Amino acid sequence: MNKCINYIYSIGAAMGSLGKGMFRTFSSMVHPARILTQQYPENRETTLYIPERFEAELHLIEDENGELKCTACTLCQTACPNDTIQIKVEKVTTPEGKSKRVLSEYIYDLGRCTFCGQCVDSCNFGALEMTNHFENSEYDKRKLVKLLNERHLPANRKEEQI
Amino acid sequence: MEKYMEITPDESEGFIINIGPQHPSTHGVLRLRTQLDGETILNMDPYPGYIHRGIEKMCESLGYKQFIYLTSRMDYLSAHMNNQACALCIEKGAGLEVPERAQVIRVIMAELQRLASHLLWWGCMGLDMGAVSPFFYAFREREMILEIFEETGGNRLTMNYITPGGVMQDLHPDFVHKVKEVLASLKKHEHEYGELLTGNIIFRKRLEGVGILTPELAVSLGCTGPVARGSGISCDVRKQAPYDVYDQVEFKEILFSGGDCMNRYMVRMEEMKESISIIEQLIDHIPEGSFRNKPKGMLKLPEGEYYHRVETARGELGVYIVADGSAKPWRVKFRTPNFSNLTALKPLSIGSKVGDLVAIMSTLDLIIPDIDR
Amino acid sequence: MTSLQIDFTGFTQWIGQTLSDYLSPGWALTVELILAAVALIVMIVVLVILMIYAERKIAGFMQLRLGPMRVGWCGSVQAIADVLKLLLKECVTPFKADKFLFALAPFIVLTTSFLALVPFSYSPGLQLWDINIGVLYVTAVSSISVIGVMMAGWASNNKYSLLGAMRSGAQIVSYELSVGMSLIAVIAMSGSLSILEIINSQADGWWIYKGHIPAIISFMIFIIASTAELNRAPFDLAEAEQELTAGFHTEYSGMQFAMFFLSEYTNMLIASMMAATVFFGGWQPLYLPGLDGFNAIMDYIPGFIWFFGKVFFVVFLIMWFRWTFPRIRIDQLLRLEWKYLLPISIVNVLIAATVAVFEWYL
Amino acid sequence: MNKEKLTTLLSNRFQGKDIGESFGLPALIIAKEELMDTAHLLKEDQTFGFNQLVCETVTDRSEYFELVCHLRAVGKGHEMILKTHVEREETPLLPSLYELWQAAELFEDEIYDLFGIRFDNHPHLRRLFLDEEFEGYPLRKDFVNTLDL
Questions:
Q1: CATH number of residue B323's parent domain
Q2: B33 in helix, strand or coil?
Q3: Ranges in chain C, pLDDT < 70
Q4: What is the ipTM metric for this complex?
Q5: Domain range holding B119?
Q6: Has this prediction a pTM greater than 0.80?
Q7: C277-300 per-position pLDDT tens digit
Q8: φ and ψ of D136, to 5 deg
C-alpha cells in the first residue's frame, strides 16, 4: 500500500515540478516588458549604451593647439605584445638648428590588436586613448591597417602624399 | 591518416564514432573518439589540441607585463582570475606591494567573474540537457555583470584588467551602485533557476547517480574546483592559501559528498550564493587610496622559480614561472584546472550512455582553450 | 442548434454536381480528387508556415527575446523567406550514401503525413473521406513514417544518422501503444471509430468534460505519447542536437530537409487535430449548461474557427513543452513508456469501459 | 604539516640528499633511476602520503631537461616539488608516473608532445596537441619556428 502511495505521490511531485517550469516560461511569455534583447542596428541612436571606457580603436590625442601629443618615443611599440603598432620616426632640423625626432607615421594594425590597453598604459605623455568607435569591420583586412596621424603628417610627408 | 584510424582488436567489436571536434556539446573543439555498443560507451579517448596556440611558448618571448593578456585567452570565462594568478606570481617574484584598494577590487572582480562564469555554465548546462530557454535567463544577470566589466575595465570577455601592482584603471563611479543592482537581481530571480532546472524532474533524473566520481579517483586524477568538491574533497584555494583579501571575508567552502553530476551541479549553484555573500561583505568597504603601484621601468624578476595558485571558476590555476633575471621569463607553465578535469572524463563516461556523456561533460564544465592553451 | 453553423455540404455537393454534369463519372472523380489534394496541400502549407512563425515567436517570448523581427512586420514573412531559401539551396547527397533510398526517404515521410490528414472533419460538411474506422486509419498510417526515418538514417551512411534513426524507431514503436490506448478510452465511451460520429457524439459536451476522469487521464497520456511520437522535445532523442548533432536528417539539405521539416510540423498538426477531434469536440462549439445567451453567441462562431482554435491550443501546448523542458535520456524514455504510461493507460481503458457501460457521464 | 616540518622530515628520510627550495616549496632532486622508488615511497609512506600529482612538467635548462613534479597530500595539506634531471638528447626516456597518479597520463602526453621525452609504461603515449607529423618539439629552447604566419 505504501508503495502504491509513493508511486502516485512521485507522479504528482513530478507533474508539479514540470508545472512550475511551465508556469515560469508562460509568465515570461505574457510579460513582454522582461525582454532582454536589443534591436541593435535600429537602436544605434537611441538605447544603445557603450561605456566611455570601452576599448575599440586606438586614437592619438591632440593637444589644445591641434598638434599631436605623441613624441614618437616608441614606448607603446615596445609595450605592445602583438606588434600592432609601428612607429616611423624621422629627424628634422628645427629653425634653431637642433635636430629633433618627429613622428612620421603611426601605423596601427587593428586586425592584430587584442585591446589589452597596454599601449595606453605605457604612454608617459597621455598621447593615446581607446575610442568607442567599435563598428570597424571591413571586407578587406588591409583596410584594417590604419595610419593614425593622417591629419598630422609632417610637412615633407604631406607633399609626398599629394 | 592511418595513425588516427587504427583499430585495435578489442575495438573491432564496437561502433567507433568521433564526437567532435565540431560538435554542439563539446563547447569548443574537443574530439572524443568514442567506442559505442548501441547507446553504451565502451571506451572513450579525448583528443584535444584543436585550439592549441602555444601560450607557454609565446610567454617566453614576451615581457612580464605583456604576457598577462594571453592568460585571459586560456579560460576565457575566468579571465580576471587568470590575470590575477599571473599578477600575484609576478608580484611575489618582483616584491611588488599591492595597495589595499586594489586587493579588494581584485576580489570583487574575481567573484563577479565567478558569478558570470557559473551563470553561463548554468545556461549551457540547460542547453546540453536539451532545454533551450534557461540559457537566456542566465544571460540576464551575466549581461549586467559584463556591463560592469565593460564600464570599469573597457572590455567584456578578455579584460586584462588586473596587472602586476594593482589594477589597470580605477573603479567606475557607478560601480558600487551597479554591483548592488546585480546582486539584487540575482536574489530576486534565484527561484527561477530552481523552477527551470534544479527542481525539474527530468533534469534531476538525468543527473542523479550519473558519472560518479569517487573521492580517491578525484584525488588521483588531480581534479580540483567544483568537480572535486562535488566528491567531498576540500580543495578551495581561497580557504587553503588565501590570497589578496580572501582571509578577511567569511564564506563557506561548499562540499557535497555524492560525487555524481547532481552534486557537482549543486556545488556550483551554492557557490554562486557564497560569491554573492563575499561581494556583499566587501562592496561597502572598498578602501580609499591608490589603486595601483605602478612598477617603474621594465619589470624584471630576479633569477629563481616562482609559483602561485588561485581558485578560478573551474578549479585551481597554478602559475609556475622560471626566471633567469632578464626581462623575459625563461619558462612559464600554467597548471590549468580544465586540463586535469579532462582526465576525469574517460573514467566517468565508460559504461554510461551517450546522453550521459553530455551531462558529464557539462558538469565537468570543460573550457577547451584552457585545456589546449 | 447546428443550423446556424456554416455548412459546407451544399458547397461540396455543388462542386460534385457541376463536375459530373460536364464530365464522365470517372473523370469527375479524378478532378475532384485533384482539387481536394491541392486544397489540402495549400491548407497544410499555410498552416505550417503559420505554425513556424508562431513557434519562433512563442519561443522568443518564452526566452525573454523578441523572435524574428527583420523580414516583414515583426518578422511575419520570415517563414516564407526561409522556405524560399531552402527551395534555392542545393540538395547534397553524401558520396557513399545509398542514393535511391536517400532520395526516397523524405517522400515517404511526407506522403504518410499527408495520408493521415484524409479522414479529418474540418468543419460541418468539410471532410475528404468519411471512413468508419477513421481513428484507426490515422494511427495506422502515421506509424508508417518510421520507415522513412529509418531509411533516411540508414541511407545517409552517417553514424549519427543511424543512431538517431534507431532511437526514433524504438521510440515510435513503443509510444504507438500509449497513443492507441489513450484513444481507445474515448472510443469506448463514444462507441465509434468514425471521426464524424465521434464529433457528433460530443454535441452535448466535449469528451474531456463529459468523460471526466478517464478522459482527462487519457488526454494527458495522449499529449505525452504523441509528443514522443512526434520526436519533439522533451522527447527529441532522434535529433538530439547536443548528442547527435541533427540525428537522422544530419546529411539532408535544401528541399529534402524542408520535406522532413514540413512532415514534422504536419505530424504535429495531425496529433493536435486528433486531440481536438477526440477530446475537444472537433468543430462543436463550447456550450455551458443553463446559459442560453452564451450558447447562442457560441453558435455564431463558424465551425472551422472552433476546430482550428482547438488545434492551435494543442499545438501551443506541444510548443510550450518544447521550450520549457530538458531532454529525457533514451533508457528513461523507454522506462517512462513501459513502466508508467502503458500500465496507466491500460487501467484507464478499464475505467473508461466501466464508465461507458454504466453511462456515468457528466 | 607546514613547510619547515616537511623539510626536516624529508631530510631525515632522504639522507645525503639536498632538500632545497623551488617554487617556494621544499624540493627534492634525485637521479632519474631513483625516480620510481622515491615516488612510490612518497605516495605510500603514511607520514608523507602525497596522493595527488598537481602538475608534472619539464623545464629546458639548456644543458639538460629538468622534470618537475608538484606533489600534494590532499587532506594533510602539504606539498613538495620532486625534480629529476635527464640528459639532453633526441628522445630521452623516463619512467611514467601513471601507475601512481592517474593524472600523469595527460601531463606526460603533453611533455612528450612539446619536449619529446618518452615515458616508459605509459598506457597510451601520443602527441596530445600537435599533429602526428609535426617536426620538432616546440618548447625546447633550440626549436626553430619554420611556420610562417
A1: 1.10.645.10
A2: strand
A3: 1-6
A4: 0.85
A5: 11-18+21-372
A6: yes
A7: 888 887 877 777 777 777 777 777
A8: 90, 165
